[in-house]
Request: fold
Amino acid sequence: MLYFCTFKAMGGWSLRRGTSILSKNEVSREDRYNRKLFLRLRHGQYLINPRLALRVEGEWRRIYSVLQPQRLSAELRDVFRLDDFVYDPNTKAEQAMTELRTLLKDLEAGQTPK
Reply:
């Protein structure tokens, strides 16, 4: 997911290498070559820096106004049923997406992550 990057070992990338690339470009890190592209929420969880701006048709716009996170949605999955037990993963996924949208809105307003 572009907005909420949690790297796992895949495609020849190790967890350590994937997160090290993100951590070298963290907003709070002081380094000569740091591009300040990512905001670290917790270990291995990063967001694109909400203060990042892109030039669109000659006008500077915040990254999340261009990417439109309000249009994010979780991929719908099948409900699991086992006798009387029913588990709907879509409920938890939608709750996580709502929390992500709220977090992005708060960050754009200048609040710090909890």
Notes: Residues 45 and 96 are 14 Å apart (CA to CA).
